[in-house]
Amino acid sequence: MRVFPVIITMVLALGGFAALWLGVRTGSGLAAIDPGVVDASAAAGPGWLVAVMAVVADAGSPLAVTFLLLAVAAALAWRAWSWRPVVVAAVGWGAVTGVDSLVKHLVARPRPPLELHAVTATGFSFPSGHATISAGVVLLVTWMIAFPGPTVDGSTAQSAPPRWTWGLVATIFVPAVGASRLVLGVHYPSDVLAGWCLAVLAVGAVALTVALSTSRRAVPRPQRGMGPSPTSIPDTQGVNLPEKRSS
What we know:
mainly alpha
């Protein structure tokens, strides 16, 4: 895995999140038009669209995507005969859910007015838990499929064949979950975008940690107190040296 693109992506995500957080605190930027966007999206949605978005929101709920992550981790662990996918999934899930809960309580942004809610929603608004955790799980699964890591015998596990299929599904699924929170009137656009930024930061941090730890283990360490290796000592056995002639 290339570390530099991950770092650049994380820096961009951090900048985006900082701008959104500052806008929420000061009522500027995107946060200034958040109420109008939610009013328009919640009022303009016909009944069938609200019903579809409710199903999408259920599919992207923290509980549903957690089961998805567990299933993928178990399948990859069985395929590689290694606990690594399970450990990575657990650490990644903890990072995503932990940062979501922490920021929610730090910002403590109220949700849109109750009269706009098409479904029941409780807790703080910033960031959107559906957006954060669904995007985080999708990123985790994508990374685990693309970089499965070593198997129990030390060889590199082969990535799952339908990578492009999963990429296509993820590209549609994550924006759909985010849009569902707006149509259902339970989140502002800033909440959804902040959730996506946090997901990138959390999963990126886990990916960098795993990549650095793996690269360190791969570097052989020289043994102390050992003399030169046998290959460095010239072998003169069986070689007839010329006799010294007397003058």
